[in-house]
Design brief:
Layout lengths: L2 H27 L5 H22 L4
Helix pairs in contact: 1-2
Length: 60
């Protein structure tokens, strides 16, 4: 994997993880933790999963 691609996936994983944590903390602080928050977190967690899979995938 080229360094640019690795940097992109690292930024994607880090950014999506930080955004998910931020949304979760904001919902907890506002006492608004509900199912809607978890639906808002799902795309961020999916992005993190895709980026993590690409970072840990071994080339054949």
């Amino acid at each position: 994997m080229t360094s640019g691609r690795r940097l992109f996936f690292l930024a994607l994983a880090g950014g999506s993880a930080l955004a998910a944590i931020w949304v979760l903390v904001a919902a907890i602080r506002a006492d608004a933790l509900s199912g809607e928050v978890f639906f808002a977190l799902m795309p961020l967690l999916m992005l993190f999963g895709i980026a993590w899979q690409k970072l840990t995938d071994r080339p054949d």
